[in-house]
Amino acid sequence: MTVASPRHPSRPGRAGRLSPLELRHVIRRPSQPRERGIPEATVARLPLYLRALNGMAERGLATVSSEDLAAAAGVNSAKLRKDLSHLGSYGTRGVGYDVEYLIYQISRELGLTQDWAVAIVGVGNLGRALANYGGFVSRGFRVAALLDADPEVVGDHIAGLNVEHIDELEAVIGQRGVSIVVLATPAAAAQQVADRVVAAGVTSILNFAPVVLSVPEGVDIRKVDLSIELQILAFHEQRKTDRMTGGPAMADEWPEAVDL
Amino acid sequence: MTVASPRHPSRPGRAGRLSPLELRHVIRRPSQPRERGIPEATVARLPLYLRALNGMAERGLATVSSEDLAAAAGVNSAKLRKDLSHLGSYGTRGVGYDVEYLIYQISRELGLTQDWAVAIVGVGNLGRALANYGGFVSRGFRVAALLDADPEVVGDHIAGLNVEHIDELEAVIGQRGVSIVVLATPAAAAQQVADRVVAAGVTSILNFAPVVLSVPEGVDIRKVDLSIELQILAFHEQRKTDRMTGGPAMADEWPEAVDL
DNA sequence: GTCCCTTTGTGAACCCATGCACAAAGTGGG
DNA sequence: CCCACTTTGTGCATGGGTTCACAAAGGGAC
After folding, report:
1. Nearest CB to B112 within list A132, A141, A234
2. Are residues A102 and A120 in the same domain?
3. Which of A52, A78, A89, B206 could join A72 via S-S bond, C-beta 3.0 to 4.6 A?
Protein backbone atom coordinates (compact mmCIF):
# COMPACT_ATOMS: atom_id res chain seq x y z
CA MET A 1 0.00 0.00 0.00
CA THR A 2 1.20 3.46 -0.86
CA VAL A 3 0.45 6.31 1.49
CA ALA A 4 -0.63 9.46 -0.27
CA SER A 5 -0.72 12.86 1.33
CA PRO A 6 -4.36 13.91 1.37
CA ARG A 7 -5.52 17.31 2.49
CA HIS A 8 -7.33 17.64 5.78
CA PRO A 9 -10.92 16.58 5.06
CA SER A 10 -12.57 19.33 7.05
CA ARG A 11 -10.94 21.93 4.83
CA PRO A 12 -11.56 20.51 1.37
CA GLY A 13 -11.71 23.23 -1.23
CA ARG A 14 -11.52 26.45 0.72
CA ALA A 15 -7.89 27.19 0.02
CA GLY A 16 -7.58 30.85 0.86
CA ARG A 17 -10.44 31.57 3.24
CA LEU A 18 -9.89 30.76 6.87
CA SER A 19 -12.36 31.53 9.62
CA PRO A 20 -11.13 33.18 12.84
CA LEU A 21 -11.41 29.81 14.45
CA GLU A 22 -9.14 28.17 11.92
CA LEU A 23 -6.69 31.01 12.27
CA ARG A 24 -6.44 30.41 15.95
CA HIS A 25 -5.52 26.83 15.21
CA VAL A 26 -2.84 27.73 12.75
CA ILE A 27 -1.36 30.49 14.85
CA ARG A 28 -1.20 28.37 17.97
CA ARG A 29 0.66 25.63 16.13
CA PRO A 30 4.20 27.11 16.13
CA SER A 31 4.15 27.53 19.90
CA GLN A 32 3.67 23.80 20.16
CA PRO A 33 5.34 22.50 16.98
CA ARG A 34 4.42 18.87 17.49
CA GLU A 35 5.46 17.80 20.95
CA ARG A 36 8.59 15.75 20.37
CA GLY A 37 7.68 13.60 23.35
CA ILE A 38 5.20 10.96 22.34
CA PRO A 39 4.88 8.49 25.24
CA GLU A 40 6.42 5.12 24.58
CA ALA A 41 3.16 3.36 25.42
CA THR A 42 1.43 5.40 22.76
CA VAL A 43 4.05 4.62 20.13
CA ALA A 44 3.59 0.93 20.82
CA ARG A 45 -0.13 1.23 20.10
CA LEU A 46 0.05 3.33 16.95
CA PRO A 47 0.80 0.31 14.72
CA LEU A 48 -2.30 -1.32 16.16
CA TYR A 49 -4.47 1.64 15.20
CA LEU A 50 -2.84 1.73 11.82
CA ARG A 51 -3.69 -1.87 11.14
CA ALA A 52 -7.31 -1.37 12.17
CA LEU A 53 -7.55 1.73 10.02
CA ASN A 54 -6.15 -0.07 6.99
CA GLY A 55 -8.83 -2.70 7.39
CA MET A 56 -11.49 0.01 7.51
CA ALA A 57 -10.08 1.78 4.47
CA GLU A 58 -10.26 -1.48 2.55
CA ARG A 59 -13.89 -1.86 3.52
CA GLY A 60 -14.51 1.63 2.19
CA LEU A 61 -15.21 3.48 5.44
CA ALA A 62 -14.59 7.20 5.16
CA THR A 63 -14.71 8.21 8.81
CA VAL A 64 -14.58 6.41 12.13
CA SER A 65 -15.37 7.41 15.70
CA SER A 66 -12.91 6.89 18.54
CA GLU A 67 -15.37 4.40 19.97
CA ASP A 68 -15.37 2.19 16.89
CA LEU A 69 -11.67 2.45 16.20
CA ALA A 70 -10.88 1.67 19.82
CA ALA A 71 -13.06 -1.42 19.67
CA ALA A 72 -11.34 -2.58 16.50
CA ALA A 73 -7.93 -2.10 18.08
CA GLY A 74 -9.00 -3.65 21.36
CA VAL A 75 -8.39 -0.65 23.60
CA ASN A 76 -10.35 1.86 25.66
CA SER A 77 -11.73 4.78 23.65
CA ALA A 78 -10.40 7.40 26.04
CA LYS A 79 -6.95 5.93 25.68
CA LEU A 80 -7.23 6.03 21.92
CA ARG A 81 -8.25 9.66 21.93
CA LYS A 82 -5.42 10.61 24.25
CA ASP A 83 -2.96 8.69 22.09
CA LEU A 84 -4.11 10.44 18.94
CA SER A 85 -4.09 13.80 20.67
CA HIS A 86 -0.33 13.43 21.06
CA LEU A 87 0.04 13.51 17.31
CA GLY A 88 -2.13 16.58 16.90
CA SER A 89 -5.77 17.47 16.68
CA TYR A 90 -6.84 15.42 13.70
CA GLY A 91 -10.44 14.58 14.56
CA THR A 92 -13.67 16.43 13.95
CA ARG A 93 -15.98 16.77 16.92
CA GLY A 94 -19.38 15.33 16.33
CA VAL A 95 -18.04 13.28 13.40
CA GLY A 96 -14.90 11.34 14.19
CA TYR A 97 -11.65 10.80 12.31
CA ASP A 98 -11.16 10.69 8.57
CA VAL A 99 -9.77 7.24 7.89
CA GLU A 100 -7.37 8.05 5.05
CA TYR A 101 -6.09 11.18 6.70
CA LEU A 102 -5.44 9.42 9.99
CA ILE A 103 -3.64 6.60 8.19
CA TYR A 104 -1.41 9.20 6.62
CA GLN A 105 -0.68 11.00 9.88
CA ILE A 106 0.12 7.85 11.84
CA SER A 107 2.23 6.50 9.00
CA ARG A 108 4.19 9.71 8.88
CA GLU A 109 4.69 9.76 12.63
CA LEU A 110 5.94 6.19 12.62
CA GLY A 111 8.23 6.90 9.72
CA LEU A 112 6.49 4.58 7.31
CA THR A 113 6.22 7.08 4.50
CA GLN A 114 9.79 6.26 3.64
CA ASP A 115 10.89 2.70 3.08
CA TRP A 116 13.38 0.98 5.33
CA ALA A 117 15.99 -1.48 4.18
CA VAL A 118 16.17 -4.41 6.58
CA ALA A 119 18.84 -7.10 6.75
CA ILE A 120 18.10 -10.46 8.32
CA VAL A 121 21.09 -12.18 9.87
CA GLY A 122 20.71 -15.89 10.53
CA VAL A 123 18.79 -17.92 8.00
CA GLY A 124 17.62 -20.83 10.11
CA ASN A 125 14.00 -21.79 10.48
CA LEU A 126 13.09 -18.48 12.01
CA GLY A 127 15.08 -16.35 9.61
CA ARG A 128 13.47 -18.15 6.72
CA ALA A 129 10.02 -17.55 8.18
CA LEU A 130 10.79 -13.86 8.66
CA ALA A 131 12.09 -13.52 5.10
CA ASN A 132 8.84 -14.95 3.79
CA TYR A 133 6.63 -12.97 6.15
CA GLY A 134 4.37 -10.77 4.09
CA GLY A 135 3.71 -8.24 6.83
CA PHE A 136 7.03 -6.52 6.25
CA VAL A 137 6.89 -5.32 2.68
CA SER A 138 3.33 -4.16 3.02
CA ARG A 139 4.31 -1.58 5.62
CA GLY A 140 7.35 0.19 4.27
CA PHE A 141 9.92 -2.44 5.13
CA ARG A 142 12.02 -4.09 2.46
CA VAL A 143 14.22 -7.08 3.15
CA ALA A 144 17.45 -5.99 1.48
CA ALA A 145 19.70 -8.89 2.47
CA LEU A 146 19.85 -12.32 4.04
CA LEU A 147 23.11 -13.28 5.72
CA ASP A 148 24.37 -16.43 7.36
CA ALA A 149 27.65 -17.97 8.48
CA ASP A 150 26.84 -21.53 7.42
CA PRO A 151 28.34 -22.29 3.97
CA GLU A 152 25.56 -24.83 3.58
CA VAL A 153 22.85 -22.19 3.32
CA VAL A 154 24.90 -19.41 1.68
CA GLY A 155 23.79 -19.27 -1.92
CA ASP A 156 20.27 -20.49 -1.25
CA HIS A 157 17.45 -18.52 -2.78
CA ILE A 158 14.77 -17.53 -0.27
CA ALA A 159 11.90 -15.18 -0.91
CA GLY A 160 13.60 -13.99 -4.05
CA LEU A 161 16.87 -13.21 -2.31
CA ASN A 162 20.28 -14.77 -2.44
CA VAL A 163 21.68 -15.75 0.97
CA GLU A 164 25.05 -14.07 1.38
CA HIS A 165 27.95 -14.86 3.66
CA ILE A 166 28.23 -13.03 6.95
CA ASP A 167 31.59 -11.68 5.82
CA GLU A 168 29.65 -9.38 3.54
CA LEU A 169 27.82 -7.85 6.51
CA GLU A 170 29.55 -4.47 6.60
CA ALA A 171 29.60 -4.10 2.83
CA VAL A 172 25.91 -4.95 2.53
CA ILE A 173 24.90 -2.55 5.28
CA GLY A 174 26.87 0.28 3.77
CA GLN A 175 25.97 -0.23 0.14
CA ARG A 176 22.27 -0.95 0.50
CA GLY A 177 21.51 1.62 3.15
CA VAL A 178 20.41 -0.92 5.73
CA SER A 179 19.25 0.86 8.86
CA ILE A 180 17.46 -1.93 10.71
CA VAL A 181 18.91 -5.38 11.35
CA VAL A 182 16.94 -8.42 12.43
CA LEU A 183 18.96 -10.93 14.44
CA ALA A 184 17.77 -14.51 14.05
CA THR A 185 21.07 -16.20 14.84
CA PRO A 186 21.76 -18.79 17.50
CA ALA A 187 22.15 -17.26 20.95
CA ALA A 188 25.89 -17.82 20.99
CA ALA A 189 26.49 -15.73 17.88
CA ALA A 190 24.12 -12.86 18.60
CA GLN A 191 26.36 -10.57 20.64
CA GLN A 192 29.21 -10.89 18.19
CA VAL A 193 26.98 -10.05 15.24
CA ALA A 194 25.41 -7.19 17.17
CA ASP A 195 28.84 -5.69 17.80
CA ARG A 196 29.69 -5.78 14.11
CA VAL A 197 26.32 -4.40 13.10
CA VAL A 198 26.64 -1.50 15.52
CA ALA A 199 30.18 -0.82 14.37
CA ALA A 200 28.83 -0.62 10.84
CA GLY A 201 26.56 2.22 11.95
CA VAL A 202 23.23 0.51 12.49
CA THR A 203 21.29 1.85 15.48
CA SER A 204 18.12 -0.25 15.39
CA ILE A 205 18.09 -3.98 16.08
CA LEU A 206 15.28 -6.46 16.42
CA ASN A 207 16.63 -9.40 18.37
CA PHE A 208 15.11 -12.87 18.31
CA ALA A 209 18.04 -14.59 19.97
CA PRO A 210 17.41 -15.45 23.63
CA VAL A 211 20.23 -13.37 25.06
CA VAL A 212 20.56 -9.94 26.60
CA LEU A 213 22.57 -7.89 24.14
CA SER A 214 24.81 -5.16 25.38
CA VAL A 215 25.07 -2.22 23.03
CA PRO A 216 26.27 1.36 23.34
CA GLU A 217 24.05 4.27 24.26
CA GLY A 218 21.87 5.41 21.39
CA VAL A 219 21.30 1.99 19.87
CA ASP A 220 17.70 0.81 20.11
CA ILE A 221 17.03 -2.84 20.70
CA ARG A 222 13.70 -4.58 20.74
CA LYS A 223 13.56 -8.22 21.57
CA VAL A 224 11.10 -10.97 20.86
CA ASP A 225 11.47 -14.12 22.89
CA LEU A 226 9.06 -16.88 22.10
CA SER A 227 9.81 -18.94 25.16
CA ILE A 228 9.34 -15.97 27.49
CA GLU A 229 5.86 -15.41 26.13
CA LEU A 230 5.00 -19.03 26.80
CA GLN A 231 6.38 -18.83 30.31
CA ILE A 232 4.20 -15.83 31.09
CA LEU A 233 1.18 -17.74 29.80
CA ALA A 234 2.15 -20.73 31.92
CA PHE A 235 2.23 -18.52 35.01
CA HIS A 236 -1.32 -17.32 34.48
CA GLU A 237 -2.51 -20.76 33.44
CA GLN A 238 -1.12 -22.20 36.66
CA ARG A 239 -2.87 -19.54 38.69
CA LYS A 240 -6.15 -20.32 37.00
CA THR A 241 -5.93 -24.05 37.57
CA ASP A 242 -4.69 -23.48 41.14
CA ARG A 243 -7.82 -21.49 41.86
CA MET A 244 -10.02 -24.30 40.56
CA THR A 245 -8.35 -27.04 42.55
CA GLY A 246 -8.25 -24.93 45.69
CA GLY A 247 -4.87 -23.30 46.07
CA PRO A 248 -1.44 -24.35 44.89
CA ALA A 249 0.18 -27.65 45.72
CA MET A 250 1.77 -25.66 48.57
CA ALA A 251 5.10 -27.28 47.84
CA ASP A 252 6.78 -24.51 49.72
CA GLU A 253 10.16 -24.69 51.36
CA TRP A 254 10.76 -26.02 54.85
CA PRO A 255 8.18 -28.78 54.83
CA GLU A 256 9.36 -29.83 58.29
CA ALA A 257 8.41 -26.47 59.73
CA VAL A 258 4.75 -26.94 58.83
CA ASP A 259 4.57 -29.66 61.44
CA LEU A 260 5.07 -27.21 64.28
CA MET B 1 16.78 -29.46 32.06
CA THR B 2 14.94 -30.97 34.98
CA VAL B 3 14.24 -28.84 38.01
CA ALA B 4 14.81 -30.67 41.25
CA SER B 5 13.54 -29.48 44.58
CA PRO B 6 16.60 -28.55 46.61
CA ARG B 7 16.43 -27.56 50.23
CA HIS B 8 17.14 -24.00 51.18
CA PRO B 9 20.93 -23.73 51.15
CA SER B 10 21.20 -21.77 54.36
CA ARG B 11 19.56 -24.66 56.19
CA PRO B 12 21.42 -27.62 54.76
CA GLY B 13 21.47 -30.56 57.13
CA ARG B 14 19.83 -29.23 60.27
CA ALA B 15 16.48 -30.89 59.84
CA GLY B 16 14.92 -30.64 63.28
CA ARG B 17 16.67 -27.73 64.95
CA LEU B 18 15.47 -24.25 64.17
CA SER B 19 16.85 -21.09 65.77
CA PRO B 20 14.40 -18.51 67.17
CA LEU B 21 15.12 -16.46 64.12
CA GLU B 22 14.14 -19.20 61.78
CA LEU B 23 11.02 -19.83 63.80
CA ARG B 24 10.00 -16.24 63.36
CA HIS B 25 10.29 -16.68 59.66
CA VAL B 26 8.20 -19.79 59.60
CA ILE B 27 5.53 -18.49 61.91
CA ARG B 28 5.13 -15.28 60.03
CA ARG B 29 4.65 -17.15 56.80
CA PRO B 30 0.99 -18.18 57.17
CA SER B 31 -0.12 -14.60 57.76
CA GLN B 32 1.28 -13.80 54.33
CA PRO B 33 0.90 -17.13 52.50
CA ARG B 34 2.65 -15.99 49.35
CA GLU B 35 1.03 -12.79 48.15
CA ARG B 36 -1.20 -13.89 45.30
CA GLY B 37 -0.58 -10.56 43.63
CA ILE B 38 2.71 -10.62 41.81
CA PRO B 39 2.83 -7.51 39.61
CA GLU B 40 2.51 -8.20 35.92
CA ALA B 41 5.73 -6.36 35.17
CA THR B 42 7.54 -8.65 37.57
CA VAL B 43 6.09 -11.79 36.01
CA ALA B 44 7.31 -10.63 32.62
CA ARG B 45 10.84 -10.36 33.95
CA LEU B 46 11.04 -13.64 35.85
CA PRO B 47 11.80 -15.65 32.68
CA LEU B 48 14.67 -13.28 32.05
CA TYR B 49 16.15 -13.92 35.47
CA LEU B 50 15.60 -17.61 35.01
CA ARG B 51 17.55 -17.65 31.79
CA ALA B 52 20.43 -15.74 33.33
CA LEU B 53 20.44 -18.08 36.34
CA ASN B 54 20.52 -21.16 34.13
CA GLY B 55 23.57 -19.78 32.40
CA MET B 56 25.23 -19.23 35.75
CA ALA B 57 24.35 -22.70 36.97
CA GLU B 58 25.94 -24.16 33.85
CA ARG B 59 29.08 -22.21 34.55
CA GLY B 60 29.10 -23.68 38.05
CA LEU B 61 28.32 -20.56 40.09
CA ALA B 62 26.83 -21.38 43.47
CA THR B 63 25.63 -17.95 44.56
CA VAL B 64 25.05 -14.63 42.87
CA SER B 65 24.46 -11.10 44.12
CA SER B 66 21.55 -9.00 42.99
CA GLU B 67 24.06 -6.71 41.34
CA ASP B 68 25.53 -9.44 39.16
CA LEU B 69 22.26 -11.11 38.33
CA ALA B 70 20.71 -7.78 37.43
CA ALA B 71 23.59 -7.03 35.10
CA ALA B 72 23.22 -10.42 33.43
CA ALA B 73 19.50 -9.86 32.94
CA GLY B 74 19.95 -6.27 31.82
CA VAL B 75 17.95 -4.60 34.57
CA ASN B 76 18.47 -2.34 37.56
CA SER B 77 19.54 -4.19 40.73
CA ALA B 78 16.94 -2.53 42.91
CA LYS B 79 14.26 -3.66 40.52
CA LEU B 80 15.57 -7.18 40.61
CA ARG B 81 15.53 -7.28 44.41
CA LYS B 82 12.00 -5.91 44.54
CA ASP B 83 10.88 -8.44 41.96
CA LEU B 84 12.37 -11.33 43.89
CA SER B 85 10.96 -10.03 47.14
CA HIS B 86 7.49 -10.62 45.70
CA LEU B 87 8.21 -14.33 45.61
CA GLY B 88 9.48 -14.46 49.14
CA SER B 89 12.68 -13.78 51.03
CA TYR B 90 15.05 -16.13 49.31
CA GLY B 91 18.33 -14.24 49.55
CA THR B 92 20.97 -14.17 52.23
CA ARG B 93 22.15 -10.72 53.29
CA GLY B 94 25.86 -10.25 52.86
CA VAL B 95 26.01 -13.19 50.45
CA GLY B 96 23.41 -13.08 47.71
CA TYR B 97 21.11 -15.69 46.24
CA ASP B 98 21.77 -19.40 45.90
CA VAL B 99 21.62 -20.07 42.19
CA GLU B 100 20.00 -23.52 42.21
CA TYR B 101 17.52 -22.61 44.87
CA LEU B 102 16.44 -19.46 43.09
CA ILE B 103 16.06 -21.37 39.83
CA TYR B 104 13.75 -23.75 41.63
CA GLN B 105 11.67 -21.00 43.23
CA ILE B 106 11.23 -19.01 40.03
CA SER B 107 10.45 -22.16 38.06
CA ARG B 108 7.84 -23.13 40.56
CA GLU B 109 6.28 -19.69 40.57
CA LEU B 110 6.10 -19.66 36.79
CA GLY B 111 4.64 -23.13 36.74
CA LEU B 112 7.55 -24.72 34.95
CA THR B 113 7.95 -27.63 37.35
CA GLN B 114 5.13 -29.32 35.51
CA ASP B 115 5.23 -29.74 31.77
CA TRP B 116 2.76 -28.09 29.46
CA ALA B 117 1.35 -29.61 26.32
CA VAL B 118 1.30 -27.05 23.54
CA ALA B 119 -0.49 -27.31 20.20
CA ILE B 120 0.64 -25.25 17.24
CA VAL B 121 -2.10 -24.37 14.77
CA GLY B 122 -0.94 -23.26 11.36
CA VAL B 123 2.10 -24.93 9.89
CA GLY B 124 3.34 -22.30 7.50
CA ASN B 125 6.83 -20.86 7.64
CA LEU B 126 6.35 -19.50 11.09
CA GLY B 127 4.62 -22.57 12.50
CA ARG B 128 7.44 -24.71 11.18
CA ALA B 129 10.02 -22.46 12.78
CA LEU B 130 8.19 -22.61 16.09
CA ALA B 131 7.93 -26.38 15.95
CA ASN B 132 11.67 -26.64 15.48
CA TYR B 133 12.49 -23.98 18.07
CA GLY B 134 14.58 -25.61 20.77
CA GLY B 135 13.72 -23.09 23.46
CA PHE B 136 10.38 -24.73 24.14
CA VAL B 137 11.18 -28.25 25.22
CA SER B 138 14.04 -27.09 27.38
CA ARG B 139 11.70 -25.13 29.62
CA GLY B 140 8.83 -27.39 30.42
CA PHE B 141 6.91 -26.99 27.18
CA ARG B 142 6.21 -29.92 24.92
CA VAL B 143 4.79 -29.54 21.44
CA ALA B 144 2.00 -32.11 21.50
CA ALA B 145 0.43 -31.45 18.12
CA LEU B 146 0.77 -29.61 14.84
CA LEU B 147 -2.46 -28.78 13.03
CA ASP B 148 -3.25 -27.21 9.68
CA ALA B 149 -6.17 -26.85 7.31
CA ASP B 150 -4.17 -27.25 4.11
CA PRO B 151 -4.35 -30.89 2.86
CA GLU B 152 -1.01 -30.24 1.20
CA VAL B 153 0.86 -30.05 4.52
CA VAL B 154 -1.29 -32.46 6.53
CA GLY B 155 0.71 -35.64 6.90
CA ASP B 156 4.10 -33.92 6.74
CA HIS B 157 6.60 -34.83 9.41
CA ILE B 158 8.07 -31.83 11.18
CA ALA B 159 10.27 -31.91 14.25
CA GLY B 160 9.30 -35.53 14.83
CA LEU B 161 5.58 -34.80 14.67
CA ASN B 162 2.90 -35.66 12.20
CA VAL B 163 0.89 -32.67 10.95
CA GLU B 164 -2.79 -33.37 11.59
CA HIS B 165 -5.89 -31.87 10.06
CA ILE B 166 -7.60 -28.99 11.82
CA ASP B 167 -10.72 -31.13 12.10
CA GLU B 168 -8.90 -33.04 14.82
CA LEU B 169 -8.48 -29.87 16.88
CA GLU B 170 -11.00 -30.61 19.61
CA ALA B 171 -10.05 -34.27 19.87
CA VAL B 172 -6.35 -33.49 20.11
CA ILE B 173 -6.86 -30.83 22.76
CA GLY B 174 -9.00 -33.10 24.87
CA GLN B 175 -7.01 -36.30 24.54
CA ARG B 176 -3.51 -34.89 24.92
CA GLY B 177 -4.26 -32.41 27.68
CA VAL B 178 -3.31 -29.37 25.63
CA SER B 179 -3.61 -26.25 27.76
CA ILE B 180 -1.74 -23.71 25.64
CA VAL B 181 -2.35 -23.12 21.95
CA VAL B 182 -0.02 -21.22 19.63
CA LEU B 183 -1.79 -19.56 16.71
CA ALA B 184 0.37 -19.23 13.61
CA THR B 185 -2.42 -19.18 11.07
CA PRO B 186 -3.14 -16.52 8.46
CA ALA B 187 -4.90 -13.51 9.91
CA ALA B 188 -8.20 -14.40 8.30
CA ALA B 189 -8.42 -17.77 10.05
CA ALA B 190 -7.21 -16.75 13.49
CA GLN B 191 -10.48 -15.65 15.09
CA GLN B 192 -12.29 -18.73 13.90
CA VAL B 193 -9.63 -21.05 15.27
CA ALA B 194 -9.50 -19.08 18.50
CA ASP B 195 -13.23 -19.57 18.97
CA ARG B 196 -12.94 -23.32 18.53
CA VAL B 197 -9.92 -23.52 20.80
CA VAL B 198 -11.69 -21.60 23.55
CA ALA B 199 -14.81 -23.72 23.15
CA ALA B 200 -12.60 -26.76 23.64
CA GLY B 201 -11.58 -25.41 27.03
CA VAL B 202 -8.21 -23.80 26.37
CA THR B 203 -7.65 -20.56 28.29
CA SER B 204 -4.15 -19.58 27.19
CA ILE B 205 -3.33 -18.51 23.66
CA LEU B 206 -0.17 -17.18 22.09
CA ASN B 207 -1.19 -15.34 18.94
CA PHE B 208 1.17 -14.61 16.05
CA ALA B 209 -1.56 -13.63 13.61
CA PRO B 210 -1.80 -9.88 13.08
CA VAL B 211 -5.36 -9.48 14.29
CA VAL B 212 -7.04 -8.45 17.52
CA LEU B 213 -8.72 -11.56 18.83
CA SER B 214 -11.86 -11.28 20.85
CA VAL B 215 -12.21 -13.92 23.52
CA PRO B 216 -14.37 -14.34 26.61
CA GLU B 217 -13.37 -13.16 30.07
CA GLY B 218 -10.85 -15.44 31.69
CA VAL B 219 -8.96 -16.38 28.55
CA ASP B 220 -5.40 -15.08 28.45
CA ILE B 221 -3.98 -13.94 25.18
CA ARG B 222 -0.47 -12.82 24.46
CA LYS B 223 0.40 -11.59 21.05
CA VAL B 224 3.60 -11.31 19.11
CA ASP B 225 3.51 -9.14 16.03
CA LEU B 226 6.71 -8.94 14.05
CA SER B 227 5.69 -5.99 11.95
CA ILE B 228 4.65 -3.96 14.99
CA GLU B 229 8.09 -4.39 16.48
CA LEU B 230 9.66 -3.12 13.27
CA GLN B 231 7.31 -0.15 13.18
CA ILE B 232 8.31 0.85 16.69
CA LEU B 233 11.96 0.62 15.70
CA ALA B 234 11.27 2.72 12.62
CA PHE B 235 9.71 5.42 14.79
CA HIS B 236 12.81 5.73 16.93
CA GLU B 237 15.13 5.42 13.96
CA GLN B 238 13.30 8.28 12.28
CA ARG B 239 13.62 10.42 15.36
CA LYS B 240 17.33 9.75 15.51
CA THR B 241 17.96 10.64 11.88
CA ASP B 242 15.64 13.67 12.17
CA ARG B 243 17.79 14.98 14.97
CA MET B 244 20.93 14.62 12.87
CA THR B 245 19.54 16.36 9.81
CA GLY B 246 17.95 19.11 11.87
CA GLY B 247 14.30 18.37 12.40
CA PRO B 248 11.78 16.43 10.36
CA ALA B 249 10.84 17.23 6.79
CA MET B 250 8.06 19.31 8.40
CA ALA B 251 5.57 17.95 5.88
CA ASP B 252 2.77 19.02 8.15
CA GLU B 253 -0.80 19.74 7.17
CA TRP B 254 -2.08 23.06 5.85
CA PRO B 255 0.95 24.16 3.90
CA GLU B 256 -0.96 27.23 2.75
CA ALA B 257 -1.41 28.44 6.29
CA VAL B 258 2.33 28.76 6.78
CA ASP B 259 2.32 31.64 4.33
CA LEU B 260 0.33 33.87 6.66
C1' DG C 1 31.74 -12.25 71.54
C1' DT C 2 32.69 -7.97 68.87
C1' DC C 3 33.64 -5.31 64.91
C1' DC C 4 33.53 -4.48 60.13
C1' DC C 5 32.12 -5.47 55.60
C1' DT C 6 28.76 -6.94 52.23
C1' DT C 7 24.27 -7.39 50.53
C1' DT C 8 19.36 -7.88 51.00
C1' DG C 9 14.67 -6.17 51.56
C1' DT C 10 11.77 -2.21 51.64
C1' DG C 11 9.81 2.61 52.82
C1' DA C 12 9.13 6.61 50.29
C1' DA C 13 9.32 9.78 46.47
C1' DC C 14 8.76 10.18 41.82
C1' DC C 15 7.15 9.32 37.18
C1' DC C 16 4.29 7.47 33.67
C1' DA C 17 -0.02 5.46 32.21
C1' DT C 18 -4.95 4.73 32.58
C1' DG C 19 -9.67 6.00 32.68
C1' DC C 20 -13.43 9.00 34.15
C1' DA C 21 -16.09 12.73 33.21
C1' DC C 22 -17.04 16.98 31.11
C1' DA C 23 -16.54 21.32 28.56
C1' DA C 24 -15.72 22.65 23.88
C1' DA C 25 -16.72 22.13 19.18
C1' DG C 26 -18.83 20.54 15.40
C1' DT C 27 -23.24 18.59 12.59
C1' DG C 28 -27.89 18.54 11.09
C1' DG C 29 -32.85 19.59 11.36
C1' DG C 30 -36.36 22.79 11.48
C1' DC D 1 -30.77 31.35 13.62
C1' DC D 2 -31.38 28.21 17.29
C1' DC D 3 -31.54 23.90 19.46
C1' DA D 4 -30.54 19.11 20.23
C1' DC D 5 -27.30 15.67 19.54
C1' DT D 6 -22.78 13.62 18.74
C1' DT D 7 -18.04 13.18 19.48
C1' DT D 8 -13.51 15.02 20.37
C1' DG D 9 -9.82 16.62 23.37
C1' DT D 10 -8.24 17.08 28.05
C1' DG D 11 -7.97 18.18 33.31
C1' DC D 12 -7.72 15.42 37.06
C1' DA D 13 -7.63 11.63 40.11
C1' DT D 14 -5.98 7.11 40.73
C1' DG D 15 -2.82 3.36 40.50
C1' DG D 16 1.16 0.81 39.15
C1' DG D 17 6.04 0.67 38.32
C1' DT D 18 10.74 2.39 38.96
C1' DT D 19 14.46 4.13 41.52
C1' DC D 20 16.85 5.90 45.51
C1' DA D 21 18.69 5.32 49.74
C1' DC D 22 19.09 3.14 54.05
C1' DA D 23 18.17 0.18 58.07
C1' DA D 24 18.40 -4.61 59.08
C1' DA D 25 20.72 -8.91 58.69
C1' DG D 26 24.12 -12.11 57.83
C1' DG D 27 29.31 -13.64 57.23
C1' DG D 28 33.99 -13.76 58.54
C1' DA D 29 38.19 -12.36 61.05
C1' DC D 30 40.21 -12.24 65.30
Report:
1. A234
2. no
3. A52
From B257's Cα to the closest Cα of chain A, the distance in A is 7
Residues 6+ apart with CB under 8 A from A224: A206, A207, A208, B224, B226, B229
Within a domain: B30: yes
Residue B180 CB burial class (10 angstroms; 0-12, 13-18, ≥19)? buried
What is the distance in angstroms between the CA of the first residue and the CA of the last residue of chain A? 70
| Backbone dihedral angles phi then psi of residue B64, each to the nearest 5 degrees | -150, 145
* B103 and B143 within one domain: no
Radius of gyration of chain A (CA): 24
A122 and A222 part of one domain: yes
Nucleotides of D under 7 A from a protein CB: 5-11, 16-21, 24-27
Q: Which of A49, A80, A110 is the last residue of a domain?
A: A110
A207 in the same domain as A164: yes
> How many angstroms is C1' of C16 away from CA of B20?
44
- Which tens digits make up the pLDDT trace of B174-225? 999 999 999 999 999 999 999 999 999 999 999 999 999 999 999 999 999 9
**In a shared domain, residues B122 and B71:** no
pLDDT tens sequence across B211-237? 999 999 999 999 999 899 999 999 999
Distance CA A89, CA A75 (A): 20
> Is the residue at A143 inside a domain?
yes
Which chain B residues are closer than 8 Å to A225 by Cβ? 47, 135
Q: What is the pLDDT of residue A232?
A: 97
Measuring CA to CA, which residue among A260, A238, A126 is closest to residue B25? A260
Per-residue pLDDT tens over the stretch A11-69? 333 333 333 333 333 333 333 334 468 999 999 999 999 999 999 999 999 999 999 99
Query: For position A67, which CATH number holds?
Result: 1.10.10.10
Coil, helix or strand at residue A188: helix
Beta bridge partners of A204: A220
Residue-number span of the structural domain to which B135 is assigned: 116-227
Please indicate, yes or no, if residue A188 is contained in any of the structural domains: yes
Asked if residue B122 is part of any domain, the answer here is yes
What's the number of domains chain B is made of?
A: 2
Q: How far apart are CA A73 and CA B73, in angstroms?
A: 32
> B218 and B122, same structural domain?
yes
